[in-house]
Design a protein that fits this description.
Elements: H1 7-33, H2 38-42, H3 45-63, H4 71-90, H5 104-111, H6 114-124, H7 131-150, H8 157-174, H9 177-184
């Protein structure tokens, strides 16, 4: 692994990722505080999907550590960011003063390609991904497709899919080599 510093990586690491992660975090906090009471906020499934997306963005940011970053990686990152921002919009995060109801079909539809795009991004930045990482990523796409099809069948579907995706994301993050290195040091 050769270590290089280039303008694209400096911009992405120092500006784009912190800006996006900060915006998503602020919108998340606003979603909590915009509700009239805590119980109403805690019953909002979009809030839990916000946690999942914050964790996803944080993991992506950590994965850039000591990796070459090029124009292809930037292009994939911008596409992922665009999809996630539109997905946030469909969760009702941009509506004020009260959060709007989520458009679950479009949310899941926008999120479905993210795990695949992330695997392509891993390949582009030469990140050491194994089949242990591919299984949760593939199952994540399946979860999103299930969401597109069945999101409005039962009240508990979106909560269940969120929990399942959180488990898959946690499994994926836990097996990341950069975190394994951090744990051992």
């Amino acid at each position: 692994m050769k270590k290089t510093t280039n303008l694209v990586k400096i911009l992405v690491e120092g500006l784009f990722y912190p800006a996006v992660l900060g915006t998503v975090f602020v919108l998340f906090l606003y979603r909590i505080t915009a509700n009239e009471d805590v119980s109403k906020a805690l019953s909002d499934c979009a809030l839990y999907w916000g946690v999942v997306l914050i964790l996803y963005f944080s993991a992506s940011y950590i994965m850039m550590k000591d990796r070459d970053y090029n124009g292809w990686a930037l292009l994939i990152d911008m596409l992922e960011t665009l999809l996630i921002f539109i997905a946030y919009y469909n969760l009702g995060y941009f509506d004020s003063p009260q959060p709007a109801l989520a458009n679950w079909t479009f949310f899941y539809l926008l999120m479905a390609p993210i795990p695949f795009l992330h695997q392509v991004w891993n390949k582009v930045i030469d990140y050491p991904i194994t089949s242990k990482h591919m299984v949760p990523a593939t199952l994540s796409t399946v979860v999103f497709i299930i969401g597109v099809i069945w999101n409005d069948m039962y009240w508990w579907i979106n909560y269940s899919l969120c929990f399942l995706h959180l488990v898959l994301l946690s499994t994926y993050i836990y097996k990341l080599p950069v975190l394994i290195e951090l744990k051992s040091s």
